[in-house]
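Title: [Solved] LysR family transcriptional regulator 3D structure

Original question kept below for reference.
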Amino acid sequence: MIVENLKVFVTVSEQKNFSRAAELLNLSQPGVSLHIRNLENELGAKLMHRSPKQVKLTEAGHILYQKAKKILALYDEARRDIQLLQDTVTGSIHVGASFTIGEYLLPRLLAEFVAQYPQVELQVTIGNTWEIVQKVRKQELHLGLVEGTVTEPGLTITPYMKDELLLVAAPDHPLCEMRQADVSKLHHWSWILRESGSGTRAFSDRFLQEHKLEIKRTYVFNSSQGVKEAVAAGLGLAILSRWVVRKELESGSLQSIPLKGIKFTRDFSTIQTVDHSPSMAIERFLQQLMEDARRLRTRGLG
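Solution (posted by the thread starter after getting help):
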């Protein structure tokens, strides 16, 4: 089908690499090459210059790329309209989520969605906020769910839920003896941080810089679980989402330290490219996401 050929052509054009395109499309590299050859034979023109390092479009290739994007968008729109007539939600969704959302909120939402729409094929990628933003921008994901502030051009960013963050420490940390701690008491302690690119790391960095805190030492982990374990072991303080530390606070392995006059909040947001054309499956997924956020707000959790 020519639509499949066009999808492969557009992916190779954007990735500028046959191997990366094959990986994204779950095809073999010879399979990708066959799709391109079929297009070139049908159109009677060479579309790409291929070298070991990268792929470059010919003049004909540039023309086809612009038209192919429009054709694929119209095809998706037509398929969505037909699905509406049939009242059956099908298709596939590739969702990307930052770690806090992907590990602590998304699994339950996906279970509910799959139960309601079993014919939709779901794929999930979890990474830090920066990684998810870049994948959405490159159209490797249909939808991104991220935490914190996103200013990347070419994206539609829609906050859907508030997240509360907490300053946490091991129960035997000296600051835990205080009913409320003044920010001035946070000098000269060790801090446990997420890696650069994480929304939680960006929030922590802003807080430390804003209050000009003098830090004894920092330890960096690339997962919230690693940060939690380090804090529980007594390595230092950390700022983490309430969603991340709920069980640890209940069990007593971590303790929250309230700060005088300060409450940490940030947005959870959906991100899509400005020119995205959402399928009915994605629209239903977003509807369920918003409904889930509304339910959590009524319970005082979002």
